[in-house]
Amino acid sequence: MDVNTAERKRIRIEVEHIARVEGHGNIHIGIENGELTACSWEVVETPRFFEVMLRGLSLEMAPLLSARICGICSISHALVSARAAERALQLEVPAAAQQVRLLAKHAETLQSHTLHLFFLVAPDLLDVGSVIPVLASHPDIVAMATRLRGYANRASDLLVGRTSHPMVIQVGGLTQLPRKSQLRQLLQELEEVLPTLWTALALFKTLPLPEFERETVTIRGSAAICSPVMACCAGKTTTWP
Amino acid sequence: MNYLGIPITKPKVAVFGFTGCEGCQLQLANKEETLGALLGAIEVRNFRLISSDKDDDYDIAFVEGSITTDEEVAHLQQIRSQAKILVAMGACACLGGVNNLRSRFSLAEAVAEVYGDRPIASGPVRRVADVVTVDIELPGCPISKAEFEWLVRHLMLGVAPQFPQYPVCVECKQRMNACVLDLGRLCLGPVTRGGCHAVCPRNRLGCWGCRGPAEEANFESLVHILRDHGFSERGIAERASFFNAFSGSDVLPILGPAGGAPLGHVARAEVEG
User: What gap in Å lies between CA B31 and CA B69, rounded to an integer?
Assistant: First the structure.
């Protein structure tokens, strides 16, 4: 950060390569005589050209390749890619596969949000540079993070193969379904891990958040059970093998 | 710290991401049961994804992603001059990875398709080893955290890691998976380096070759098997080109430049040129 103190009326703030964010960016801010003259966010991520990579390849490659857009939210990228192909071909996806996909989406959300909250945001709220000093100062917080993330990752492993670059999601459905006993085990584990989620929520309520207010529009999907990346599976029943 | 009388150093580690998905870096934050132990065993000096503390005094650099811009080349060279050991991490860094699929098109065509008239800084897709000397290649898409920890243990003890050279089929048979070829799925397991515990065939997906070619891989035999199972030349070429793992094979068909060029082996330089 470079604040020009020689001339008080002109202030420039340059943040090169912001840390602890998914993706790459710089911030440029300029102030002259109390007036904001520059305020920009520059995306310095190198281009990948996925639109071009996908051109001319077989449809079955699309979800696997699209997953590689982002290793943190691969499941979403694979799901929307498969959905796009299914809608184009007007393919009906079996209800069981839909339900597993929805569960996998939730597992990814838990993984991604706990990464964000505990590893990327919490260090700022605790005034340290990363989660590493938190390990010594607040081991309970890191234990909470690893418990929740561990559950989310195990769920993704069971449902779609793994968190980053899942193998099971394919156009038309899934390569395989989890067994009923495995899903029961996952449910039991969820019940064990849920109290940790409430503890985490209570914890973040106590951490000092910077004062920042702005007009916000919040949106969500209309059906409580369905995510926008899914074909709606509400009301469909499944017989498990 | 001592292990069996051998002094163990706490390596000063840095992690860098170039053109890629950050998935390999994410794996380092996973495997929750050993996260504390790992962070206690190494000293993280520079890891932008998870830390705003930054110190350019490090010994081991883990580098994720392909190298596609001049800035990346300069940054990588600077990392090389600092690091005693440079590890290329994941398929993009080791092989070019999926990024190389865009090399079927000219850069001008790719920029026009995605960004229109906007000026975009990019260049050919390069492996880390195309730009600087690489000491160790940690394969996979993504890497596995267990294998990363295995490598860190070797580095702490100063022992050269010996990665498996046998094909994926060995581990697939050990896990008693049904052969995915018999399930009608194309699989590169017979020619791809193992060490992944056949995690893709285990999930009923064939192998896509993310760890690179196995030692003395019998490509001819694989092509015969795949033809016998009814897979097309085009399908084999698409699969073999996915991670750019087999551009050194004269036998496996590889996707040529797009626009009607005949299938067949196309040398890496030709694709990029």
Answer: 32
Per DSSP (E only), the strands in A81-181 are 169-170, 173-174
Query: Which token pair is B9?
Result: 């150093």
Specify the residue for token string 């999601």: A169
ipTM of the shown complex: 0.91
In chain B, whose CA is at the least distance from the CA of A118? B50
- Token pair 């202030």 in the structure block, residue: A11
Which residues touch A82 (CB under 8 Å, ≥6 apart)? A62, A63, A169, A170, A171, A172
Taken in order A64, A69, A74, A79, the sign of the CA dihedral is negative
Instruction: Give average pLDDT by consecutive 10-residue segment, chain B, 273 residues.
Output: 72 95 92 83 90 91 97 97 97 97 93 91 95 98 95 90 96 96 96 97 96 95 95 94 91 76 37 37
pLDDT of residue B270: 40
Cβ neighbours of A129 in B, within 8 Å: 51-53
Neighbouring-strand partners of residue B138: B89
Q: What are the phi and psi torsion angles at A229 (to 5°)?
A: -85, 5
**What pLDDT sits at residue A236?**
52
Written as one string, the DSSP assignment of B207-258 is ---TT-BPTT--HHHHHHHHHHTT--HHHHHHHHHTTS--TT-SSS-B--ST
Tens of pLDDT, residue by residue over A65-102, are 999 999 999 999 999 999 999 999 999 999 999 999 99
d(CA A204, CA B151): 36
Q: What angle do CA B150, A129, A38 make, to 5 degrees?
A: 125
Chain B residue at shortest CA distance from A178: B203
For residue A105, the one-letter residue type is: K
Q: Could you report the per-residue pLDDT of B125-150, keeping only the tens digit for each?
A: 999 999 999 999 999 999 999 999 99
Q: Do A164 and B199 lie within an 8 Å CB cutoff?
A: no
Distance CA A209, CA A54 (A): 42
Q: What is the dihedral of CA A193, A199, A205, A207, to 10 degrees?
A: -100
Picking from A18, A43, A46, A100 by the largest number of B CB atoms within 10 A of its own CB, the best residue to mutate is A46
Say how far apart CA A40 and CA A26 lie, in whole Å: 8
For residues A120 and A109, give the distance between their C-alpha atoms in angstroms, rounded to a whole number: 15
Dist CA A93 CA A233 (whole Å): 10
Please report residues of A whose CB lies closer than 8 A to that of B197.
none
Closest residue to B68, CB basis, from A46, A123, A149: A46
Instruction: Let me know the angle formed at the C-alpha of A164 by B245 and B198, rounded to the nearest 5 degrees.
Output: 55
Beta-sheet strands, E only, within chain B: 2-3, 6-7, 12-17, 43-47, 60-64, 85-89, 136-138
